[in-house]
Amino acid sequence: MDQLDLLLHPVRLRIVHAMSGFRTRTTSELCAGLPDVPKTTVYRHVGLLAEAGVLEVAEEQPVRGVVERHYRLRRDRAAVGADAAEAMSLEDHRRGFTAAMAALLAEFNAYLDRDGADPTADSVGYRQGVLWLSPGELAELIGEVRAVLAARSGNRPEPGRSPHLMSAILFPAGQAAEPEADEAKPAG
Questions:
Q1: Do residues 167 and 104 make contact, with C-beta atoms less than 8 angstroms apart?
Q2: Strand 24-25's sheet: what is its strand order?
Q3: Span 10-35, pLDDT tens digits
Q4: Are 55 and 71 in contact (CB under 8 A)?
Q5: Using an 8 Å Cβ cutoff, are 57 and 71 in contact?
Q6: Which domain does 53 fall in, by range?
Q7: Which CATH number characterizes residue 60's domain?
């Protein structure tokens, strides 16, 4: 299975999300964190991710006559690289976006189904808006957002911190603006 097929799947995306923060987790712990996904499905997808090197065994220990594996995420293998993204077809992008939205919807529903879910107190947000940007302004915006996120991406789990899923979606919403009528005429 190639990297695109491996990562562009809603359940595998959710497992990657659940493994973030430099945590080690067993498959049983992942099953508990993804209660809406059948256990056999979690085990199958963990196996695929481990076989592909996205997850690696951090520790093994015997538990009641079987070996329990603690996995950790290999962050360098858990994303579609720039070269692979550039080589993606339009259909690959459609499939990737669909998988990401399916994973996002499942994660949001799992959050709402938890006891004590409180979107207001938890600062849940899902705003959308249109920004009119030149190619230079777009590049600047992307750089600024990356810098803000990079400053927090190395945070590890510790008391007082909880994981937050953030999804950035950015694409052209329409055609470029046409020049105003008086701007289109040559000065004379």
A1: yes
A2: 24-25, 66-73, 55-63
A3: 999 999 999 988 889 999 999 999 99
A4: yes
A5: yes
A6: 3-113
A7: 1.10.10.10
Domain contains 176 = no
Backbone angles phi and psi of 111, in degrees to 5: -60, -50
Pick from 26, 22, 169, 28: nearest CA to 103: 169
Residue 56 included in any domain: yes
pTM score over 0.85: no
Burial class (CB in 10 A: 0-12, 13-18, 19+), 27: buried
The per-residue pLDDT of the chain, averaged, comes to: 90
Per-residue model confidence (pLDDT) at position 183: 56
CA distance 163 to 174: 34
Contact predicate 107/14, CB 8 Å: yes
pLDDT for res 20: 87
pLDDT of residue 180 exceeding 80, the answer is: no
Helix (H) or strand (E) holding 24: strand 24-25
3: left (phi over 0), alpha (psi -120 to 50) or beta: alpha
Integer CA distances (angstroms), 142 to 57, 86, 90, 107, 148, in order:
34, 17, 22, 25, 10
Task: Provide the number of structural domains found in the chain.
Answer: 1
pLDDT at 151 over 60: yes
